[in-house]
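User: Is it possible to get a 3D structure for a protein together with its bound compound? The compound here is 4'-phosphopantetheine. I've pasted both below.
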Amino acid sequence: MRVAVYPGSFDPITNGHIDVLERSSKIFDRIIIAVVHNVTKKAMFTLDERVDMIRQSAAHIPNMEIGCFSGLLANYLIEKQACAIIRGLRTVTDFEYEMHMAMMNREIIPDIDTIFITSDKDYLFISSSGVKEAAMVGGNVESMVPQAVNLALKQKFQAVQS
Ligand code: PNS
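Assistant: Yes, that's possible. Here is the predicted structure of the complex:
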């Protein structure tokens, strides 16, 4: 069985992430979307909230499971017996960061390759940070995120504004 791990912050998951997940689920037998629990990086949504949004948004992908990890990604890959890391690529801006991360991971765990899934043109401009920034000041991000995320963003900012 060929298992791949799709790691990230997913703060929150966007339609671009879902697209990468759908595409990679057709290549591998099992995809584990792995939400990082990073104590040094402040996320807008808690780990539980991020996982819950993914659960609601990716339920249609049958060979997908959701996991969480902290610390070194390589350790998680070994634990899950994964053969690949999935990362989405949008523009050249992503490339430098992604290449660096892929090289680091290869140095740490040479047997596991990073597979880049190129974004669909419809999602090239979508990022979690852009979505949060727009939603925070009342922008409509409905077309950029799954329904559950749109709702969660509205609730989050209503709570902040009231
Ligand atoms: O969605 P993000 O924030 O771009 O995801 C980055 C992530 C979580 C994949 C990356 O920061 C990571 O793998 N962190 C775990 C620490 C690690 O293993 N670092 C070594 C490789 S750079």
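The first helix runs from residue 15 to 25. The chain has six helices and five strands.
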